[in-house]
Amino acid sequence: MFVKNCINPSHKILNLILFISLLFSVRTIKASDPDEHTAIVHDSLQEHAAAGAHHEEHDGKVNIGALAIEHILDSHAWHLWGHGEDAVSIHLPVIFYSNKTGLNLFSSSRFGHGEQSYNGYSLHEEKIVSEDESEKIYDISITKNVAQMMISMLILFGLFISIAKSYGKTGVTNAPKGKQSFFEPLIVFVRDDIAKSNIGKNHTKFVPFLLTVFFFILINNVLGMLPIGANLTGNIAFTFVLSFITLIVTNINGNANYWHHLFLPPAPKWLYPILIPIEIVGIFTKPFALMIRLFANMSAGHIIIISLIGLIFIFKSIAVSPISIAFALFIDVLECLVAFLQAYVFTMLTALFIGSAVEEHHHDHEGHSHENEASVNAKH
User: Fold this and answer.
1) What is the pTM of this model?
2) Measured on CA atoms in the order 261, 267, 270, 271, is the torsion positive or negative?
3) In 3D, which of 215, 297, 213 has the Cα closest to residue 250?
4) Which of 34, 217, 222, 280 is the least crowded, having the fewest Cβ atoms under 10 Å away?
């Protein structure tokens, strides 16, 4: 019954808003000068990967660093296997709006492997650039990460709608079977051990949001572990939007006590010029920590595994393979734990932040109760 209740229209709308917010975290770029953005971490990684690939073409060596960075970055084509001309990829749609040519839609195969131009446009470090320096481009392409986001959304909706229908047929009194028996403990865990224990009596209305966040991150963590999967949760733009949604949900639901503690902290007034700015900065540092934690942990695992396998090619000796593969297998198994752990940590901290915003304080009420009790005792 609990799962069935979570799939009502209002909760569907909440899930849809979450997905749309993630999908349309659009990058606005100036096509004439892509070098202006090299200070951004994501672009710096792309620069390193491109330089590594260029180095590989010249000396024939495998650049493990370039391969590792390429694996964790987003792209306009979904690479499956192979390299160079023998590479097998799924070409994704390129969609962007230009202030000169309007809406453009075509396949990323038009760019070849990023070495060709089409209608005056080309890819530079996975950014669409134009020959016209004054042209401005708004890129909303279906990239590899966006495609995986859509796949995970379909899995999430299909899975829980199916579970809700199963409960509707069998009822809640019967023992769960199949996928119900696997997911029910996780759902109850999120409801009781994450939402209820951190938010309190008002936890019910936040459970659908927390379930969506938990399973959305978990599914993408698992898909990212596949050799042909996309490293969506290791993309800082994705974790930024998730954290931003947490920021919005927390502050929209903040009660009077939350805002009173923020702008009138329980401290001497002469400390307010110091404490109030710290409290305001704290509003943003909490979701920022969520963003960095998920991004760093999921990216690190992928890089370590590829680097360990790459030791075979660096030393050019099969004698290294037993040690390399053994350590890579150990890290891969550890990643299975990290996939669940990071979904739990993100959801738990989100519930903790929401709980601190909706928590009711009863100091005054308790104080009056103690006074009344003392007066009664005095009369007796």
Assistant:
1) 0.77
2) negative
3) 213
4) 280
Beta bridge partners of 118: 121
Cα–Cα distance for residue pair 40/241, rounded to 1 Å: 17
Distances 183 to 19, 139, 210, 213 between C-alpha atoms, Å: 21, 37, 15, 15
Burial of 228 from C-beta contacts in 10 A (0-12 / 13-18 / 19+)? exposed
Instruction: Quote the CA–CA distance of 341 and 347 in Å, as a whole number.
Output: 10
Q: How far apart are CA 34 and CA 329, in angstroms?
A: 39
> Average model confidence (pLDDT) for the chain?
78
Both tokens assigned to 139: 């890129």
pLDDT higher than 70, residue 183: yes
- Beta carbons of 255 and 357 less than 8 angstroms apart: yes
Contact 120/130 with Cβ under 8 angstroms?
Answer: yes
Is residue 347 within 8 A of residue 194, CB to CB? The reply is yes
* Residue pointed to by tokens 């009781």: 192
Assess contact for 286 and 301: CB atoms under 8 A. Answer: no
pLDDT band at 378, cuts 50/70/90?
Answer: very low
| 147 and 230 Cβ atoms separated by less than 8 Å | yes
Q: pLDDT digit string (tens) for 8-36?
A: 444 444 454 454 445 444 343 333 343 44
**β-strands 77-81, 88-91: how paired?**
antiparallel
